[in-house]
Specification:
- The complex is a heterodimer of chains A (247) and B (470).
- Chain A has 247 residues and is an alpha/beta fold.
- Helices cover 46% and strands 12% of the residues of chain A.
- Chain A folds into 2 domains: 2-113; 127-242, Rossmann fold.
- The radius of gyration of chain A is 17 Å and the shape is globular.
- With 470 residues, chain B is α/β, with parallel strands linked by helices.
- The longest helix of chain B is centred in the first third of the chain and has 24 residues, at 19-42.
- Classes of the chains: A alpha/beta (247), B alpha/beta (470).
Chain lengths: 247, 470
């Protein structure tokens, strides 16, 4: 199985350590991973803002970069959601369909495809609150949502529980959106920032040292809100913890 | 009516400045959402009920003309006068004529979103008819000359102290009252004489049953029953989408409605209106007002399944932090954002963007309307119809081009990194940068992932990989 690694633009530019951890983790698990150098973006920002035709160039490039791989893995729920569910600015050829059907968010790839049962190198001696992005929660369905009253399940939690030393706390509103929402964070900045501050305070008051997430876009927003409001909480991508980061 | 796009972002910003109101609003509605969850957990068949409700509504909507005619026929047999209103103006004219023919000058009414759609009160006022809202929240909003900010709890954005001030002005009560019971009592004392001397009563209708020619009104205050039965003339204004085919279908909706809305098992009053009372007259005005057109919209017709429970508003993190009035429309919140553009695409073009597309609304909706997917689709439609501001449209156009050109893109990333690392604070955090208004920017990094990969992985390979073109 040849894996193509997609590193979303904001991870590339602002959280390279999350990208490095993803690559190293997949390599530790014995995977054959390649990162096509000429990648940019999956097209989500244009798609989400309604400018779907403007997503065509990004989507076409994405397919050129990744069509040759058996599986495409990315450390981002929202990008996976875009590729899987909304990636239709370009004609739906066999190649495009192959890419869409074989794109995985990192957690679901580890949990469902590789079925990893241990991370012997991982130890994280901190109290964490898990933030599931709305993309992972309500589109990819990697965890149960409170709206449906379904039997609780959580793929990220299943993985994190295999890490030594880690402790968990649950905020009061675990699956309320943090307010990032792509361009929403700028066009509705006041509501967006208020949602972000409420989110980080909720985790902090529950006793979390860290907020861990499979989505760096939520983290970028939450971190900015926490720093401005003076909420002393740290952020980490789930790939980093699973790859053995100590902090 | 002004066509200027509603500035939801600015109104929301204003709402956020008032901490006590904001906190009360957010917590009160979140409490309703939690009570709804508790009710859901009691019923193991919750998801089946949602599925069934959705199925019944979709079936009914697919044969709406048939069922409407069936209702009309059966309602007439029950002695109900049935009227058809193509739009708000026609609705108001019909109601005005009924009132005139009875020489009715005082109309009491219970809550009805359709009459808000039709802007009925100002029309009747011009005809010399005094309209008095009998629902407590709606009456508060009427006295304050505001639209309802929520479809179930119209004055939820107000604190007790706000209501005390309004009542002091109109009912001459003590403006310092802080006991909600005393305020409710003041409203009761003010409303009872009006109700007793009213010439006509008006209600909405939650459900209309085709096979029986009857309709159902669900309330908690009993005000609809007083409005409908104290005067001899009862007019019910009902949207044409409120139909269910059979009486047997009704149970599914009654079980879902109040549980979804307030988290109570059922409304205090669930009244079946089967015909005029002895010596009285009953009229039903069936209102289209854009509904048939909506029914023809492939991506948006299922919004007509809505039973107006407000669950999507209660759960919406944006609505809870911006308040219903910030939507500048009769219908606010997620359901409003997908319905309002069908009334006026330009004016409400901003509302589908007042969402993070988080999808909570879709999953609490008792009739399974895919609200967040419709928000996404509305954005596409609005862009196609040139209803997106030019600057934003251009930014997306440029971004889209950039994302298709890896080399240019790399150069742009470098520039961002440099600017984040070197720009003085006052340049990064000024009013031109909405991100930085209430948030710090992400920290600049030493190298991007792409740089790191070139240095640490590409070197290990025998030769540089060629352009990955197929």
């Amino acid at each position: 199985m040849k894996i193509g690694l997609f590193i979303p633009c904001y991870i590339d530019a602002f959280y390279p350590e999350a990208g490095i951890a993803t690559l190293e983790l997949l390599e530790k698990l014995g995977q054959d991973v390649e990162y096509p150098l000429d990648q940019t973006c999956c097209g989500q920002p244009m798609g989400n803002s309604g400018c779907n035709s403007d997503a065509a160039a990004a989507e076409a490039l994405f397919v050129r970069n990744f069509a040759k791989y058996d599986k495409i893995v990315m450390p981002s729920g929202s990008c996976t959601h875009h590729v899987r569910d909304n990636f239709d600015a370009i004609p739906q050829t066999d190649e495009v369909r192959h890419v869409r059907e074989n794109t995985y968010e990192l957690v679901e790839f580890l949990h469902d495809v590789l079925k990893v049962d241990a991370f012997p190198w991982a130890e994280f001696n901190h109290t964490v609150g898990l933030h599931n992005s709305c993309g992972t929660l309500r589109a990819l369905r990697t965890a149960s949502m409170s709206e449906l009253g379904e039997k609780p399940f959580s793929k990220p939690m299943d993985l994190l529980k295999k890490v030594k030393g880690i402790r968990f706390v649950t905020p009061k509103r675990p699956d309320e959106c943090c307010g990032f929402g792509g361009t929403f964070s700028v066009t509705e900045e006041a509501v967006s920032a208020k949602m972000g501050v409420d989110k980080v305070r909720d985790h902090y008051q529950a006793g979390a040292d860290y907020i861990v997430s499979a989505d760096s876009s939520c983290v970028m927003h939450q971190q900015g809100c926490a720093e401005r409001a003076g909420v002393p909480i740290r952020f980490i991508h789930i790939a980093q913890i699973l790859n053995g980061a100590a902090e | 009516m002004s066509n200027k796009p509603v500035n939801h972002a600015r109104a929301a910003e204003h709402f956020l400045e008032d901490a006590p109101h904001l906190q009360f609003h957010d917590e009160r509605l979140w409490d309703m959402r939690q009570k709804r969850d508790a009710q859901m957990h009691i019923l193991p068949e919750w998801q089946e009920l949602r599925e069934e409700a959705s199925r019944i509504k979709e079936h009914t909507l697919s044969r709406l003309p048939e069922y409407l005619e069936q209702f009309e026929e059966n309602a007439k047999k029950n002695g109900i006068h049935v009227h058809w209103a193509r739009d708000g103006a026609e609705h108001n004219r019909i109601v005005g004529e009924i009132l005139k023919s009875h020489n009715a000058r005082n109309l009491i009414k219970s809550k009805s979103m359709v009459t808000e759609e039709c802007d009925m009160r100002p029309y009747l006022a011009k005809q010399g008819v005094t309209v008095t809202e009998t629902d407590l929240g709606e009456r508060i909003q009427q006295l304050d000359d505001q639209l309802p900010s929520h479809i179930v709890v119209p004055a939820v954005h107000k604190l007790t102290s706000d209501v005390a001030k309004i009542f002091a002005k109109d009912y001459h009560t003590d403006p310092n009252i802080r006991d909600p019971h005393l305020l409710a009592e003041a409203q009761r004392q003010a409303a009872r004489p009006v109700i007793l001397h009213a010439d006509a009563g008006m209600t909405g209708g939650n459900f209309v049953v085709a096979e029986t020619g009857t309709f159902v009104v669900c309330t908690n205050e009993g005000n609809a029953d007083l409005s409908a039965t104290v005067p001899n003339l009862h007019i019910a204004t009902i949207g044409i989408e409120r139909l269910v085919p059979r009486m047997a279908d009704l149970g599914v909706f009654i079980r879902l409605l109040s549980r979804s809305a307030l988290g109570s098992p059922i409304t205090q009053y669930t009244t079946h209106f089967r015909g005029p009372q002895k010596g009285g007259e009953m009229h039903v005005v069936l209102v289209d007002n854009g509904r048939s057109a909506r029914l023809g919209m492939e991506d948006f017709w299922t919004s007509l399944k809505c039973i107006r429970c407000g669950a999507c508003m209660n759960t919406c993190p944006v609505y809870r932090r911006s308040g219903g009035l910030s939507y500048g429309a009769v219908y606010s919140g997620p359901i409003g954002a997908i319905i309002d553009p069908t009334f006026n695409e330009r004016k409400y073009s901003t509302l589908p963007y007042a969402s993070t597309l988080n999808g909570s609304c879709t999953n609490v909706c008792p009739v399974k309307i895919n609200i967040h997917e419709q928000l996404y689709k509305w954005r596409r439609v609005l862009v196609q119809h040139h209803e997106m501001p030019f600057v934003k449209r251009e930014i997306m156009h440029m971004a889209g081009k950039l994302m298709g050109q890896p080399k240019l893109y790399r150069a742009a990333i470098k520039a961002t990194e440099v600017s984040l690392g070197t720009m003085p604070r006052f340049v990064l955090y000024n009013w031109l940068n909405p991100w930085g208004k209430h948030r710090e920017n992400p920290h600049p990094v030493k190298q991007t992932f792409n740089d790191w990969y070139r240095k640490n992985r590409e070197k290990a390979k025998p030769a540089a990989a060629p352009e990955t073109k197929k």
